[in-house]
Write a structure and sequence with these properties.
Number of strands: 2
Distance between the termini: 15 Å
Structural class: mainly alpha
CATH class: Mainly Alpha
Largest sheet: 2 strands, antiparallel
Helix content: over 70%
Oligomer: single chain
Shape: globular
Strand content: under 5%
Order of helices and strands: HHHHEEHHHHHHHHHHH
Number of domains: 1
Number of helices: 15
């Protein structure tokens, strides 16, 4: 779908807005922005904004482009802060900002992008748009806090995991769709259905991310395979594998490894455990259920622009089918 002429046009709009972000005469800011690579990324959140904004037949507007860029800046800010929390060496195949510029500049860099995102939205003078964004930010923080709180705890339940990713990841996907819907003047049942579509697609997106962390390779991922395990995170493939394995010697051994903070040095064995007890297959089934729910919500929406609606469904399918 990224070869589609309209999608390419939307990507150009977003990229031009991002290029303008962070322009400053401040030497420190210039240094910071030279080390923050905004040129990479699939622009999923920005595209969701622009597609949803067109659901009632409007063409791409400068307001929609600003809002799309704001969501991309917010997303990038969360990635920078994630790398600090996870002590990540790499991001998208390159050194993370944390490793290039250090802890202090990375914290400030994430904050600076967040401020730029907020600035882009403030100038729209749309209270509902602003409310949607900050409700989403609150949920992202809640999800991140809960994930850190459960570090090195492989015994979290599937429900706990789903609650975490619903806040940490799916909320920004949902907010992107909601923001576009606000710009399109959509309300009531259609707004609720679009919101639920965003949540379900976002859930599938994160589950797929967790699967790829185990099944992909470093070249495609842009970071080492098994990064989540090394960071002591229990993602769905591991949670489902432990459920499938039941209470036995192997499960107890996995628990000890995590509880003793030894997951990083036992990554290979943990991945083999996940594969043996079909954790990846179980996670894929869960992601497929969320994509099915996303499509169902979308097909209940009544709007003028059927093509934009179709593109939104294609975006959801891409989130599930992607290879990196």
């Amino acid at each position: 779908m990224f070869k589609n002429k309209d999608i390419k046009h939307k990507l150009d709009l977003i990229n031009k807005k991002l290029e303008a972000a962070g322009n400053s005469e401040n030497k420190g800011v210039k240094y910071l922005m030279e080390n923050i690579d905004l040129s990479k990324g699939k622009r999923i959140r920005g595209l969701l904004v622009l597609l949803a904004a067109q659901l009632n037949g409007e063409k791409d507007t400068d307001t929609a482009a600003d809002t799309a860029a704001a969501m991309e800046l917010l997303h990038h800010a969360t990635l920078i802060h994630d790398d600090i929390l996870d002590n990540s060496e790499k991001r998208r195949g390159e050194k993370s900002l944390f490793k290039m510029a250090g802890y202090q500049m990375s914290v400030l860099g994430g904050d600076y992008l967040f401020a730029n995102a907020a600035s882009l939205l403030i100038k729209q003078q749309n209270l509902k748009l602003y409310t949607v964004m900050f409700d989403g930010i609150k949920q992202i923080c809640e999800g991140e806090i809960e994930e850190v709180y459960n570090e090195n705890n492989p015994l979290i339940s599937p429900k706990q995991y789903f609650d975490i990713i619903r806040s940490k990841t799916a909320s920004l996907i949902r907010v992107s769709v909601q923001a576009g819907a606000v710009l399109a003047g959509i309300s009531g049942k259609n707004f609720t259905l679009l919101s639920d579509f965003g949540t379900e697609a976002g859930m599938a997106f994160q589950i797929k991310d967790d699967i790829l962390d185990i099944t992909s390779d470093e070249t495609k991922l842009g970071k080492p395979v098994g990064s989540d395990i090394k960071e002591g995170k229990a993602t769905l493939p591991l949670i489902m594998a432990m459920q499938n394995a039941g209470k036995g010697i192997e499960t107890a051994a996995i628990c000890r490894v995590f509880e003793n903070g030894k997951a990083a040095e036992n990554t290979k064995n943990i991945i083999e455990f996940i594969q043996k007890y079909r954790g990846i297959e179980a996670a894929e089934e869960a992601a497929a259920i969320h994509i099915k729910a996303a499509k169902k919500n979308l097909r209940g929406v009544s709007v003028k622009n059927a093509d934009a609606l179709k593109r939104l469904e294609e975006m959801a399918v891409y989130m599930f089918d992607r290879k990196n």
